[in-house]
Amino acid sequence: MVAIRYTLTREDLAELESECRGGILRRTFRILGGSFIGLIGLFTIWQVNFFFPRHHGSVLITAMGVVCLWAGFECPGLAWVFNRLSDPYAECELAVHPGKLSASVRGKTREFRWLPRRGFKESQKFFILEAFGSDGKWTIPKRALTAEQESRLRHLVDGEPTGTPVIECGFFLTPKDLEEASSAEQPLLGSRYGRIMLRIGAALSTLVLPWIMWRLGKSWIDEFKHEPAVAAFLAGYELFMLWTATGCIGLKTLRRFDLPRRIRISDLEVASTRGEKISRYNWKRFLYYRETENLFVLHTLLKVEFVTIPKKALHVDDESRLRSLLSEKLPRRAQAARS
């Protein structure tokens, strides 16, 4: 059992709101979606009040348009109402047991069923515990936990006794680490010069199709009129090659190098945390591992998916323990030689 007492501050709520907004991709979708919903609301209000005769139904439709417009601006004022009703600054005492949570707020105590692997998330500054069936949700600042409490909570979530040997590390993945992991598997294409040659080849391939169509005396307009499916496929191919020639713009954003990563390796599984997302791999899902100068790279059965562990994130003793554990669990492949 882990007993936790905490209180949220205004800075915590501001940090939570920032995390909910997400990265560039999520914010872009939210802005586009909000603009679309707001325009629908504005268009509805305009249509009802200027083109249709007024009657009792028009008031309801106008109200619907106002709600859509309000939602398009991300519901201003709603968070203030919820904060006034729920008092997020109240002190909370939470007792975490295997299979259940006991929460005490303002003198009232309730118990909830809890499935540790489903109801646990972790962000950079918070632990998030959610009861089974969404009956309750608790956001706990990491500053409220001691190192011992945090360790016991992690062991409780993983379902292992606290005495089980575990190798754990936290780090930020860098583009240099990813480049080294990729070049270990594909020394030619994964190297810097290999990527440059790939971009040059992609740029040249974008010129081949227009040249063929010019030689045949055809235009894109004619192709879309007579063979729309084929023309759409060729246009998509051209756009993909053009994107590859630019160095796959936006791909690094999806890698989310700004999010902290945590790797937890035990005799049962490998748990990888990136931001709030937790991925768990049992040892059967891994095919082999490689060791480079600065990394341990664990390759899954998909081959294109791998877990990267920088050696600098490990303690000296943990590095040798990890090497022994990997040698016991997985076959090792030597780093591919560079041509």
How does this structure look, described?
By secondary structure, the chain is of the alpha+beta class. Among the domains are: 10-85, no CATH class; 188-254. It has eleven helices and 14 strands. The chain has helices spanning 10-21, 24-50, 56-72, 78-86, 147-158, 175-185, 192-216, 220-226, 228-245, 251-255, 316-329, and strands at 2-6, 92-97, 100-105, 108-113, 120-122, 126-130, 137-141, 167-171, 261-265, 269-274, 277-282, 286-291, 295-300, 306-310. The strands form four sheets. Strands 1-2-3-4 form a four-stranded antiparallel β-sheet, with helices on one face. The chain is flat, with a radius of gyration of 27 Å.
For this entry, give a set of tags.
339 residues, alpha+beta, 4-stranded antiparallel β-sheet, 46% helix, flat
Could you outline the blueprint of secondary structure elements for this entry?
Elements: E1 2-6, H1 10-21, H2 24-50, H3 56-72, H4 78-86, E2 92-97, E3 100-105, E4 108-113, E5 120-122, E6 126-130, E7 137-141, H5 147-158, E8 167-171, H6 175-185, H7 192-216, H8 220-226, H9 228-245, H10 251-255, E9 261-265, E10 269-274, E11 277-282, E12 286-291, E13 295-300, E14 306-310, H11 316-329
Antiparallel strand pairs: 1-2, 2-3, 3-4, 5-6, 6-7, 8-9, 9-10, 10-11, 12-13, 13-14
Helix pairs in contact: 2-3, 7-9, 8-9
